[in-house]
Structures are given as C-alpha cells and as structure tokens.
Design brief:
This protein is an alpha+beta fold and about 575 residues long. It has 13 helices and 20 strands. Helix 7 crosses helix 8, helix 7 runs antiparallel to helix 11 and helix 8 crosses helix 12.
C-alpha cells in the first residue's frame, strides 16, 4: 500500500488546509504547482505564485472588497488610477462579471469548513493570514486571450464551482456551532482590470495586485469568497489573479480552480463538472453515516491524547518578543537529497521522514518520551473529492513513542517503521466534526485539570513529492558540499497565531524550504533556528549512514547550526 503524504496546505497552527499525495488528481494539461502562506512554489511550467500574507502591508481599495457583491458597481469610475510598481500610476477599472448557476440552497458547514472557521475566529483580526493567492500567467503560450475571453472564463468558473458562489451564514446569536453556508444561483463578481504598458510591467502589476487583494480579511457573510483581477497589455490578458477565502478552498482546491480557469480561457471548457459539491458533502457529513465515521475518528484522538503529554510546550521559557510570533526559514538542497535518500532506504515517504524528525526534536527539546504532532491532512482519497473545490483539510493526530523502535540504543531511522504506522492512523482519523472535537478536548481538560492540545503542527504543503533522483544515494562528501548552500533567515513576524510550533514544508528549486512559525515565549528566535538546522542535521546525518542515536538528539538540538554563519 502506498503511503499517503500530507501536502499542500495553508495557514497556521490548527488552521487546517492541505492534501494527501494520494488525493492529487491525475495531472491535467497546464496543471500548476501549489503555494501557500510562508511558501515558495516549486519550479514548474506555468508555475503559480503564492502570496506570503505576513509580508503584505497594502490595503485593498473599497472598490475591490465589496460588501454587496450582487450590486452593480455603477459608482466605480471607468478608469481608476492606482498606485502600481515603483510608485507609477496604473490604470484600473472594475468589470462586473455576471454568472448563473443551476441552484441555490443552504446547508451546515462541512467539517473542513468548521475547522478553518474556528481557526479564522481564533486568529482574527489577522485572519487575512488564511487567504490563498495565485497568479496565473496567460500570455506564455497558446493563442492570446482577449479581455472578453477572460471575463467569460471567470463567469464560467463561478458557475462551475458552487464554492465560489457560497457565503457564510451566521445565526442571530452568532454561535459558531450553528454557522452554515448559503449558495446563490446568480450574481456578479467585481473584477479588477489593470492595464499595463508591456509584458514586464504586466508581471509586476500582477504581483502587486496579488499582494493588495490578499492583504485584508474577507467579509465572510457578504463578500463572494474569491477576489479576481486581470492584467492586460492592450486587449490581451497576460495574467489572472485569484485570491480565495479559505472557507471556499484549500490548497488543492485552489489548484483545481487555476487548472480550470486556464482550460476555460484556452479551450472554452474544463470538461465534466465536479462529481460532488460542498452542500452535498455537508449534508452527508451531518447525517448518520458521517456521525459514525466522526465518532471512530475521535476515538483515535482520545486514545492519542491519553498516551501523550497534555501539550508539547507546557511552560514559557522567555519573555515574548514583539511581534510575538516569528517565522524562521531554512532553504536546503542537502535536506532535499537527504530526505529522498532516507525515504527510499526505509521505504517510507519523505513527508514521514520530516514529520518524524520534527517530532523527535520537539520531544527531546522538551524532555518528553512521547511526541504528539498535528499533521494537516487533505482528506481527498475519495474519487469524488479530487476535483471538489472546498476546504476538506483537517488536523490529524500523530503520536510517537520514542521507545517504539524496540532496540536498546535506538537511532532516528529505527523509529521510521513505527512512525509510518502512526502516520497512517493519523491520516485515517482526520475526518470529524470540530464541534465534537472541541467537546472532547473540554472533557479531557476537566478530567486532567489542564488543557489538552499538542500546540505543535506539521504542514507539508507539497501537492506531490518529487521522486529520488536516479542513480546512487548521495555520498557524505556530496551532502557536505550541498550543505554549504543552505540559507537561513527570519522572513516574517506577526502578532497572533493560534499555535506555539507550526512547521511548513515547501520546495524551492532543488531545495526543501522548511519554515517554522513559533511563539517566542516558548521557542525564542535562537531556538527556532536550532530546530530548523536540527532537522537538516538529523536527516542529513542519517542519509550519510550515521543515523543519530535518540539519546543524543537533545545535545544535537543544543548545537545545531551554531557553526553556521
């Protein structure tokens, strides 16, 4: 059985969004690669650029974030000057794109939507962190797209995917547990059309629009859950920009939208519509069969909670910095080669290798004998869910006993078989009602007299893992040489994230990019740096044939990266 790999997600701890490798649809023409907050997309033809929300400071104009999406934007002038790249003036106008679907309706939130809505509420007012942004180049090949072509394609995209026509519906008392979704059959989407001077100017303008449209939170009950822009040189559209509300899509869903938009622009059709819809999924999950599946998943959570420490980071160790949450990021070609080599040698996925490394370092650093980590799981194994645009991702619970290797002096790689089995259990139990999950946590908190939550999450945001390169595994000398190319930095800070340790995995060319967003009261900046270099050292040393003993991991963490400049 092929091992699922947790990949392609957005958001911070407990934020939930992602996809398993076995949930990825068969590669379609012009398929694109994924990105996410704190992520750099993998190099690929037609690669899509993802926004890094923490780095965005622009404000979306009132003409872009619309309180009444169905209203005709008659008050918007035909041409609006806007500040563009290098401070120049960009001519913009707002084009209302009409759409009409087959039905309207109401339903409860799906479990994935409930999970992300809880995370949004915990992170507000900084919940623009969860916005998902994409830039789609349209002038790179094929026949040129006119503005009329692109506008028609956007209308067809809204009609094809019900998630884009669905808004949050809150009860009068504002209770999260009773939040629902309302699907509209018809409406208009306000689309920003920016006119650039030339292709280079268009590229800069597209990325400026991505930043601007991503920089503010969505008006969840009144705004359509997608913001769109087109960049044109003359009458030819060079780029489309999409920014998605996380209630409407996760990382995998965003890729489905980008693929379909390209096909609609190029061919006028994206093929058969998706087999499932968010409303139908919500009704299924809240029925009897969904209740049974959710109960079985929560039984796994309760057993895991009882086997693990109440939390992985029980006590603050330093005065928090301002802003409180720092993101450290390491980009390592050596880690990419080493992960592939270790995964191949031990017949597990690279995602399992990285998840195990993170778990071992967290447990050792805090003096725990058992690690509890929450991987973000895509939940797209069902065939009908692979082209479904919605938020299916939820947190899983990965519990690893450091004594599970069963040897007198276990090493890091000795744990991989047990980690593989634990990861599979985690993925299978990642579909449940978050309201019932909250109730479980409250019951255990009352029983144990302390909050029960790992506050430690793992988010492998790659849609697919690249296979190990052909040929022999890298030698120790090759890994040392590659290690000289490792780059580390602190690219972002923010005031609030609903977790203490949030690890994100992406790719950058031939390197793995690993970002750790952490609460500096529990992991000061120097500890964030040590954890990232520790992951690299743990896996690279194992790939070189000297798998570190678990007894020495805490010392490794204390020295990791100190020799680097």
């Amino acid at each position: 059985m092929a091992e699922p790999v947790v990949v392609a997600a957005e958001g911070g701890a407990g934020a939930v969004a992602g996809a398993h490798a076995d949930a990825v649809t068969e590669a379609a023409p012009d398929a694109v690669t994924v990105g996410a907050p704190d992520a750099v997309t993998a190099a690929a033809p037609d690669a899509v650029t993802a926004v890094v929300p923490d780095a965005v400071t622009a404000v979306v104009p009132d003409a872009v974030t619309v309180g009444a999406p169905d209203a005709v934007l008659a008050a918007v002038p035909a041409a609006v000057p806007a500040s563009g790249p290098a401070g120049r003036t960009v001519t913009e106008e707002t084009v209302p794109v009409a759409f009409g679907g087959d039905r309207d309706g109401r339903a409860p939130l799906t479990w994935g939507q409930r999970a992300i809505w809880h995370a949004i509420r915990r992170t507000a007012p900084n919940d623009h962190y969860f916005n998902i942004g994409r830039v789609l180049p349209l002038a790179d090949r094929g026949r040129p797209a006119t503005v009329a072509d692109a506008v028609r394609a956007l209308g067809a995209l809204m009609e094809r995917h019900e998630a884009l026509r669905t808004r949050l519906e809150l009860p009068a008392d504002g209770q999260d547990a009773d939040a629902g979704q309302r699907l509209a059959a018809t409406g208009r989407l306000p689309v920003t059309l920016a006119h650039a001077r030339d292709p280079a100017d268009a590229e800069r303008t597209a990325h400026a629009l991505l930043d601007r449209l991503s920089a503010t939170r969505f008006a969840y009950t009144s705004e359509w859950p997608v913001r769109a822009a087109l960049v044109a040189v003359g009458d030819r559209v060079t780029h489309a920009v999409l920014v998605l509300c996380h209630l409407a899509a996760d990382g995998h869903g965003a890729e489905v939208l980008v693929r379909d938009l390209r096909l609609l622009v190029r061919r006028g059709s994206a093929g058969r519509p998706p087999a499932a819809t968010p409303l139908d999924l919500a009704r299924e999950q809240h029925g009897d069969a969904g209740g049974r599946r959710g109960a079985a998943a929560l039984a796994h959570w309760e057993a895991g909670y009882r086997a693990a420490p109440a939390t992985m980071f029980p006590e603050p160790v330093a005065a928090p910095r301002t802003p409180r949450f720092w993101t450290g990021r390491i980009v390592s070609p050596a880690l990419a080669r080493a992960v592939a080599a270790v995964a191949t040698a031990h017949r597990v996925s690279g995602s399992t290798v990285l998840l195990t490394a993170a778990a071992v370092l967290v447990a050792a650093g805090q003096g725990h004998r058992t690690a509890a980590v929450m991987p973000i799981v895509g939940n797209r194994t069902a065939a009908g869910h692979r082209d479904l645009v919605t938020t299916l991702s939820q947190d899983g619970l990965f519990v690893l006993d450091l004594a599970a290797a069963g040897t007198p002096e276990p090493s890091f790689t000795d744990l991989l078989p047990a980690a593989y089995r634990s990861a599979l259990r985690s993925y299978r139990a990642a579909v449940y009602d978050p309201v019932e999950w909250d109730a479980l946590g409250e019951r255990l908190r009352t029983e144990r007299g302390a909050e029960v939550h790992p506050y430690c999450c793992f988010n492998d945001m790659r849609l697919v893992e690249r296979p190990a390169p052909p040929g022999p595994a890298p030698t120790a000398a090759e890994l040392v040489e590659l290690g000289g190319r490792t780059v580390f930095g602190f690219p972002a800070t923010q005031e609030r994230v609903a977790c203490r340790y949030c690890l994100h995995i992406t790719e950058e060319g031939d390197a793995l990019a690993v970002s750790l967003t952490a609460d500096t009261a529990y992991l000061p900046p120097e500890t964030i740096r040590a954890h990232l270099y520790g992951i690299e050292e743990l896996v690279v040393t194992a790939a070189a044939g000297r798998s570190p003993l678990l007894a020495g991991v805490r010392e490794l963490l204390e020295t990791a990266g100190k020799a680097r400049t």
